[in-house]
Amino acid sequence: MTEATTAAPSRTATAVRLAGVSKAFGSGSAALLALDNVSLDVAPGEFVCLLGASGCGKSTLLNLVADLDKVTAGTIDTHGARVALMFQEPALFPWLTVTGNLELALRMRGVPRAERRARAAELLASVHLTGFEKKRPHQLSGGMRQRVALARALALTVEEGEAERGKTLLLMDEPFGALDAMTRDLLHDEIERIWRERGLTVLFVTHNVREAVRLGDRVVLLSSRPGRVVEEFPVEMARPRRIDSPEVASLAARITDRLRDEVGRHGS
Length: 268
Known about the structure:
This protein has 268 residues and is of the alpha/beta class. It has two domains: 15-24 and 37-72 and 167-267, Rossmann fold (3-Layer(aba) Sandwich), CATH 3.40.50; 91-164, no CATH class. It has helices at residues 58-65, 98-108, 113-126, 142-155, 181-198, 209-215, 246-266; strands at 16-25, 32-42, 47-51, 73-77, 82-86, 168-173, 201-206, 218-222, 229-234. It has a six-stranded mixed β-sheet, with helices on both faces. A three-stranded antiparallel β-sheet has the order 2-1-4, covered by helices on one side. Strand 1 and strand 2 form a beta hairpin. Helix 2 runs parallel beside helix 4 (142-155). The longest helix is centred in the C-terminal third of the chain and has 21 residues, at 246-266. It comes from Actinomadura craniellae. InterPro entries: AAA+_ATPase (IPR003593), ABC_transporter-like_ATP-bd (IPR003439), ABC_transporter-like_CS (IPR017871), ABC_transporter_ATP-bind (IPR050166), P-loop_NTPase (IPR027417). GO terms for molecular function: ATP binding; ATP hydrolysis activity.
């Protein structure tokens, strides 16, 4: 079987541009600098993984891109893309069915009531959950709840065919960190498939170095607090990839060594 490949995203345009972004919490001598002078360009359709030690500002950076918080200095430009954020926890409404959770997201987006049920069914099909429409979150496994959360995030983005590919930005904050290895591996396949089919631009935060190499077109390494971009690693491997392949393991080991150097240098 030949390996499928994905054409490298064009670097002549940007879906996201961070220029000199800094973020401090508090003020005066008590201020805590979380991010310091971060500059990063993400191309339309690119899958970029952000990696770094705990507390380096990865989640803070996603919140800034999602406009859930404001920068202290610098600028962020998403070029009019529709942005959705997928959190570490599914955060589904427990009193709503699976379809109800998706329809609520669609209602927030302004989708007419007559269209919501059909759209919700399409989204569930895209994450292979057809048949679970009437289930409530407590009736689902952890992996299935994360699939619903992914479908909900997609509900808040441009549907396939509605806009130019690469104009939908999906932010993912360690979405698979709490799952077992097999479920996580299956969801890696799912998010890669959906990313390709919908032409998404993805910023993906993780602590798992192999996960970053498995999924990313590029791995961006942040320093310990305050977070700064210290190195970028292009992932020039054909897709699909296996998280346990020698090629993934080799690059992951190199990145891990660099991460250890950085953490040790900062005494974290």
